[in-house]
Write a structure and sequence with these properties.
MetI-like fold; 71% helix; transmembrane; mainly alpha; 16 helices; membrane; single chain
Length: 350
């Protein structure tokens, strides 16, 4: 087992480097990089506050909106594009191996500090959405398996499939119209906490926090019920048809004991072991439109803005961190298989 863990940890390194390498060259070779964007800004927004500090560094530019060669070279040096693409690649890789991700081009803050700043929003959405999905979908899937073919099973299947087909952002708009100032003013329209959050008591802070995340969490969770509940149902149905269940019934074991001491453990193996990957998926993806609709400043919006503005340190830094976390989550999932069912092992025999 230790040999398997060591092998998987060593495989993370070439996998991570390969993913970073492919994305680096694809994004770097794409047109409209930070140099081109800054040149365009300096040409069209001469009095812009955003480019005032940078234009002071690179000098004045001509009134015919054409930058001279010296100014262009200064811009390239400012963003590190005075070096060749392979030199930039090896420099980035050597820094990332030491977990040095540099500073954002436009926010003037380190990538790690920027991620820490946006992390509370994403943690809130990802954690509570995943817990809500598991707490509802698992009992629902078990009920559907034990009552397979019943009218409630069919009706619930239709409802969850329709909910899964409904886009989360559309459902979010519907919730806002109904519960956030449209028909009923029950929940806040934006933000993770209220403006007077720091002045509230501990109970008041918890209440205010949960009050703000209710609608976004419901929106993110609505599409996850179908996949997990049907997975649980099919997993239980598969176990219920196996020979050991029939043999236990022949021996006179009660249905309750068969279900909770034999079927439940084997059927839940796949569901529990996939939790790290599911949580990570909810944590880092699928929240961009929800963050925009509910005015939440999280990792989804950060990634979108970074790609839009070609903020390469943020793009590659977040990609490196989240890919590493994804690979570790995959390893944890495999280890959970062994923890739940000792019959499973990854060591070679003979």
């Amino acid at each position: 087992m230790y040999h398997y863990i060591l092998k998987r940890l060593l495989l993370i390194i070439p996998t991570l480097i390969g993913i970073i390498t492919i994305n680096f060259f694809i994004i770097q070779l794409a047109p409209g990089g930070p140099v081109e964007q800054m040149i365009h800004k300096l040409q069209t927004l001469q009095a812009s506050t955003e480019t005032g500090n940078i234009s002071a560094k690179i000098g004045t530019y001509k009134t015919d909106n054409n930058l001279d060669e010296k100014a262009i070279e200064e811009i390239k040096k400012l963003y590190g594009f005075d070096k060749g693409i392979f030199e930039r690649y090896y420099l980035m890789l050597s820094q990332y191996l030491k977990f040095e991700f540099g500073e954002s081009y436009y926010r003037k803050i380190s990538v790690l500090d920027l991620i820490k700043e946006k992390m509370p929003t994403s943690i809130s959405l990802g954690l509570f959405s995943t817990l809500l999905i598991y707490l509802i979908a698992i009992p629902l899937g078990i009920y559907k398996a034990r009552n397979d073919g019943s009218s409630l099973d069919v009706i619930s299947s239709i409802i969850i499939v329709m909910a899964n087909a409904l886009p989360a952002f559309l459902f979010g708009i519907l919730l806002i119209v109904i519960f956030a100032g449209g028909y009923y003013d029950v929940f806040p329209l934006k933000g993770l906490v209220s403006d007077d959050f720091n002045s509230l008591s501990l109970y008041g802070k918890i209440k205010d926090y949960l009050w703000h995340i209710t609608l976004p969490v419901i929106c993110l969770s609505i599409g996850g019920f179908a996949t997990l509940s049907l997975l649980v149902k099919n997993s239980f149905l598969d176990e219920m048809q196996k020979y050991y269940v029939t043999y236990a019934r022949i021996k006179g074991v009660s249905e309750r004991r068969i279900f909770y001491f034999h079927i439940f453990r084997n059927a839940m193996l796949l569901v529990i072991s996939s939790f790290p990957a599911v949580f990570l998926g909810m944590f880092f993806s699928g929240s961009l439109l929800i963050e925009i609709i509910f005015s939440l400043d999280g990792l989804g919006l950060l990634g979108y803005d970074s790609l839009l503005h070609r903020d390469y340190p943020v793009v590659f830094g977040t990609l490196y961190i989240f890919t590493l976390l994804g690979l570790l989550a995959s390893l944890i999932s495999d280890l959970l298989y062994v923890a739940i069912d000792p019959r499973i092992h990854f060591d070679k025999k003979g």
